Each structure stands twice: as structure tokens, then as C-alpha cells.
Amino acid sequence: MLVGLVLLAMLVGSLVIFGPGLLRTLQEGGNPLRWGPECTVETADGEIGLDRDEAKLATTAVALTARGAPAPDTSGIDDAALQRLAEGPPGDAGPSLTCRGSAAGELPEQQMTDTGLTPRAEQLRAAMTEVFGDRPVGGFAPGGIDQGHGEDSTHYDGRAIDIFFRPVTEENRREGWLLAHWLIAHAEDLHIQYVIFDDRIWSAQLTRAVAGL
Asked: Which Pfam families does the record associate with it (predicted)?
């Protein structure tokens, strides 16, 4: 069995049942962003506020740069924020970037396609691949899956994608955070409800948006 880090992205409309301990942690944890900037980056010298467009630009730029691909101009964004996003969170500090929850209202229900994903999940996978290239993914299969996850898992509806970073190394952890931060920054556009990685969960439905598991 390969040991590795798994990043899980779940689409809006998911029904996910968590234990009361996790729900309490979600309600108590994270940064209170309700009245502050849409997004913040935690650096050694304190928080740097970004609007959502800046967060999307910054997370895309550092991801493309890490791949050696041409990156968009980030001259208007604080260098300290870009450096932290590129390096990833130190130790077990949790995510370096978080954004205010912005869950969309009720979206039309979508049926699973032949790939085992809904069209919105396919859109997410395509957008992710464009920036990060092909990565090992799972949690879905042609025709759908009906086992291997919790009873109410959104994997069974084709609305969740697992992204694998194996083995557990600091470099793979850093790459996982590059993607996790990008997903959080783009959650509003891609209708992402939850991002789970490295024992942390981000929820689009909470103003205190990041917590530990």
C-alpha cells in the first residue's frame, strides 16, 4: 500500500455528514474574515490581505512557476505573499492562504457523465489540469463507484475528486498546498464546497473558513 497525502475537492451541493467533534472544530477554528479582506496570506510578519482576483492570480502564478511554465504578471501583489504561497506553510502551521466562504446558492442537480464525474466536476478537473498538469487522481471511475468511501460520500454522485501526492515528503506536501490554495482561491468560480488536505478542511459555507481535522 502506498502511503501518501490526499487532497479532496468536493463540489457545491454535496451532502457530507461529519461527526460532532469535527463540526465543532469547523465552527471554532480558522481566521474570522467576515469583515476583512476576501482572502489573507499568513506570513512570518503577519497577514497580507488580497481580494479574490489577486488570490486567483497569485496562486496560479506560483503554481505555473513551480512547473517552469510562463506565469502571469504579479507585480501588483506583495512579494512576501507570493513567497509564502510558493514555499507553502512551515511545519504544521496549516494553510498559508484562506478566503472568505462564498458558497453559491442551490445549483441545478447534474447527472454523472460516462467518466464518473458530473459536468461541474469535469470542469474543475480540466481547470486544475491546465494549471497543474496531469496528476494522479481517484475517487471516481467510468460508470461511477458505489464503495470505498463513507455512506453519504459525494464520490458516489461524481462530485468529489481525490488528488494524490505520494510518498509523504516535504516537497509533495508543498506541491499539495500549491493546489489546495489554488482550489480555495478559485472555489467561487468552480463551485467548490470543501477542500481537505494535510489534516485541514476549508469550507465555502463558513466565514471562519479553515479548521483542523
From this structure: VldE
Closest CA to 84 of 113, 117, 50, 119: 50
**pTM (2 d.p.):** 0.84
- Tell how far CA 61 is from the center of its chain: 16
φ, ψ of residue 62 in degrees (nearest 5): -70, -35
Domain range for residue 158? 5-212
Per-residue pLDDT band for 213 (boundaries 50, 70, 90) equals very low
The pLDDT of residue 97: 94
Please give the tally of structural domains in the chain. Answer: 1
Omega cis (within 30) before 136: no
Q: How far out from the chain centre does Cα 62 lie?
A: 15
What nine digits make up the cell of 142? Answer: 467510468
The cell numbers describing 129, all together, are 489540469
- 22/63 Cα distance (integer angstroms): 30
- In this structure, what DSSP letter does residue 157 have? G
